[in-house]
Write a structure and sequence with these properties.
Blueprint: H1 2-48, H2 55-61, E1 69-71, E2 79-80, H3 82-86, H4 89-92, E3 97-111, E4 117-130, E5 133-149, E6 152-161, H5 164-175, E7 199-200, E8 208-209
Length: 220
């Protein structure tokens, strides 16, 4: 009788342990699914904030770190640190700048085993107007890293680039006088129709850059 009771106790303990473990797995899965929704929304909001110029939203999404890092397609627009980043608001909040639409495609998000770091890749269209003239990035390769801090996800690193084969093909079409897609916030469609701007972009020789993530302070 005593042996039977012992085995019953063992079985009950095993069932309880299994149920507890399953609840932990379920809780982890639910938490990861919730984090994925939040992270993907933060990724989209880091671009979409500009449609309404919701500066506090972007400030909540970007890490206020001295080692915040952002690579842009052109070689002169690397951003290092929060202090450098906030200077961009001078351009973004300028009434002459108006975000018009954006599209994030092929978004892939991966989480670390610890669950407090996530990295992503996507294709981005980010379109706007400057002085009512169309400008923007299309088919931009976009990657980044987010970290969970005190329950909130913030972006700590981003990288924007264009596929070199497409850039070469567009440069060839531009040489022939054909229209090319907008890139680096350019408003030019041919070599003979250049928009004024502060920097040349190495990605398309005939265009001038007004980067989404780097302020243009030329006053043009």
């Amino acid at each position: 009788m005593r042996t039977g009771l012992v085995w019953i106790g063992v079985i009950v303990a095993l069932v309880a342990s299994t149920a507890l473990g399953q609840r932990k797995v379920d809780a982890t899965s639910e938490g990861r699914a919730r984090d994925r929704v939040i992270v993907e929304q933060a990724i989209r909001d880091s671009i979409g904030w500009a449609l309404t110029k919701d500066r506090p939203l972007l400030e909540r999404i970007i890490a206020h770190d001295p080692d915040l890092f952002m690579f842009n397609p052109d070689s002169k627009s690397t951003t290092v640190g929060w202090d450098a980043f906030v200077k961009n608001f001078e351009f973004w909040m300028n009434p002459r700048f108006k975000a018009t639409s954006f599209d994030v495609r092929d978004l892939r998000t991966t989480f670390s085993r610890s669950g407090d770091v996530a990295w992503f890749s996507a294709i981005l269209d980010d379109l706007a107007e400057w002085d009512a003239k169309p400008t923007g990035w299309k088919d931009t390769r976009w990657t980044g890293v987010l970290e969970k801090r005190n329950g909130a996800w913030v972006i700590v690193q981003m990288h924007f680039s264009f596929a070199s084969d497409k850039v070469r093909a567009e440069a060839t079409r531009s040489d022939d006088g054909d229209a090319v897609p907008l890139r680096n916030f350019t408003t030019t469609t041919t070599r003979t129709n250049r928009s004024p701007g502060p920097r040349r972009s190495p990605s398309t020789e005939g265009s001038l850059s007004r980067s989404r993530w780097t302020a243009a302070r030329s006053g043009s």
